[in-house]
Design brief:
about 375 residues, alpha/beta, FAD/NAD(P)-binding domain, 2 domains, eight-stranded mixed beta sheet, 8 helices, about 25% helix, disordered C terminus
């Protein structure tokens, strides 16, 4: 049997749930599929010490404030529990443990295949984010097999590491966090990668609160794809990352992290080789080299030369009924943050409502439209 819905949302993270909230408010028939068995599991799978870079004041989804003091910084697990509570509070129709294999345009609707099960929908919202596949350089396989390699996607805490030295490759947010953590756990630690800069204040201090309010306003209203500065920043964020928000150079010095601005260039005699010619004798390498987008499972192809979907505020260009939510800098800088998910979701839900008749919540998709 093929189930039919007005809209099928893929992904029950903050973006998918926010889309669900707004679709429900407009009386649309929809279902949310997620590969994880439990809402919030994508956050529970991340490293144990993860703390958000935005205070709770800016970590709410529409209709439900984050249950914490406004200027405290939630952990990843607290966010996971919030998302689970959110889905329950609004009785959002989430089906967990359902991985999507393929999304195919057929006629004037979409077929979504999940193993042996298929769904039909007038609209599909891809809310899987834009960075699905862990990225490591090809030369990683040349490292000595005795060196333990972990991508940040699989790192949880220092107990996973072998004794002695650790090289953290990639100096973005995850790299900075993990380098500090493993150094404080007693490992000799190197952090290599170019300097992305950092904000000139302590984001968790009381004095930083006015600056955070200003930055949030700018990130929401000025740093968008509608402004020259926003478009320039979008390219930078997608290709080079963001300035560090919490960690600064003095934190590396205090923890004993050996900060190396040369990148890892390859492997020599089974050991990491840096651009400056140094070879590091380490027992562990943690790859904080990011992720890459993969939308090859969607037909027809929707990506541009840069690998990102061609879309405008989440509406796929030239592909009716296809939408995206939660992409890096999808519309504004806040699109990739929890607190920015609601605005993008409202826009997408409104667009869906204009092209799709209001459907009975318990019924199928009557009259798939172009």
């Amino acid at each position: 049997m093929v189930e039919e819905f007005g809209t099928l949302v893929i992904g029950a993270g903050q973006s998918g749930l926010a889309v669900g909230y707004h679709l429900a408010g407009r009386g649309q028939s929809f279902v949310i599929l997620d590969a994880q068995p439990r809402v919030g599991d994508s956050w529970r799978r991340r490293y144990d010490s993860l703390t958000l870079y935005t205070p709770a004041k800016y970590d709410s989804l529409p209709g439900m404030p984050f249950p914490a003091a406004p200027y405290t910084f939630p952990t990843g697990r607290e966010l996971a529990d919030y998302l689970e509570s959110y889905a329950a509070e609004f009785a959002l129709p989430v089906r967990g443990g359902v991985g999507v294999d393929r999304v195919t345009r057929e006629g004037n609707g979409w077929t979504v295949t999940t193993g042996a099960t298929s769904y039909r929908a007038a609209n599909v919202v891809v809310a899987t984010g834009g960075e699905q596949l862990p990225s490591t350089p090809a030369f990683a396989r040349e490292l000595d097999p005795g060196i333990r390699q972990l991508h940040s996607d699989r790192y949880h805490n220092p107990s996973q590491l072998l004794p002695c030295g650790v090289l953290v490759v990639g100096a973005g947010h995850s790299g900075a966090d993990l380098a500090l953590e493993v150094a404080q756990a007693g490992h000799t630690t190197w952090l290599c990668g170019r300097d992305t800069g950092h904000v000139p204040f302590d984001i968790e201090s009381r004095s930083a609160r006015p600056a955070i309010r200003v930055l949030w306003f700018l990130a929401t209203h000025a740093l968008t794809v509608r402004t020259p500065l926003g478009r320039k920043l979008q390219r930078h964020v997608r290709n080079h990352g963001c300035p560090l928000l919490r960690v600064k150079n003095e934190h590396f010095e205090a923890a004993g992290v050996q900060r190396v601005h040369a990148r890892m260039a390859g492997v020599r005699d089974g050991l990491p080789l840096l651009e400056d010619g140094r070879v590091l004798d380490v027992s562990n390498v943690i790859w904080c080299t990011g992720f890459r987008p993969d939308f090859s499972w969607i037909e027809p192809s929707v990506t541009g030369p840069d690998g990102w979907p061609v879309q405008d505020r989440g509406v796929a260009t030239g592909v009716p009924g296809l939408y995206f939510a939660g992409l890096l800098f999808q519309y504004s800088f806040t699109s990739m943050l929890v607190g920015g998910a609601g605005r993008d979701a409202a826009y997408i839900a409104a667009h869906i409502a204009r092209r799709t008749p209001v459907l009975e919540r318990s019924g199928g998709a009557r009259g798939l439209t172009r």
